[in-house]
Amino acid sequence: MKTFPLIGTLSLVLLIAGCNNYPAAPVQGPAGPQGQAGQTGDSGQTGDRGRTGYTGDTGQPGQTGDMGQTGDRGRTGYTGDTGQQGQTGDRGRTGHTGDAGQTGRTGDSGQTGRTGDQGVQGQAAPCPAGEHRYTDHDSGRTSCVRD
């Protein structure tokens, strides 16, 4: 930054000096003795801070990790208690045997040519041993079934 004014001033001096017509310069004499060494110059100013660098490339993805070990086997559970035995159901009741029908009466002896009324039909014979009579509620029909 300070270099620019210095170069500008020097250029101006040379320009002016070159434009003047001075008489011929005298012949140079012998060189004089060596001068003393100059003083050490002051330290220069600290330079400007550099620009921030570019962001680096993204790294490559890492490798897949190793597979974990198999876990321990679980413990066997307890055997459950045996359930209680169910109760036996009640035995069904035996049905009632129907009453025996009455035997029909013989008609009265009446006038010649007239026959008496016919009696009501009696009940069927009783069931064999180990069976009982059953009446179907829907049809009213009776039959023998095993006990």
Describe the structure.
The chain has 147 residues and is largely without helices or strands. It has one helix spanning 3-19, and strands spanning 131-135, 142-146. 12% of the residues lie in helices and 7% in strands. It is rod-shaped. It contains 1 helix and 2 strands, in the order αββ.
Give a brief rundown of this model.
By secondary structure, the protein is low in regular secondary structure.
Can you lay out the helices and strands and say which pair or pack?
Elements: H1 3-19, E1 131-135, E2 142-146
Antiparallel strand pairs: 1-2
Spatial order of the strands forming the largest sheet:
1-2
The profile of the biggest β sheet is: 2 strands, antiparallel
Instruction: Tell me the total number of β-strands.
Output: 2
Task: Specify the structural class.
Answer: little secondary structure
Helix coverage percent: 10-25%
Following the backbone from N to C, one meets helices and strands in this order, namely HEE
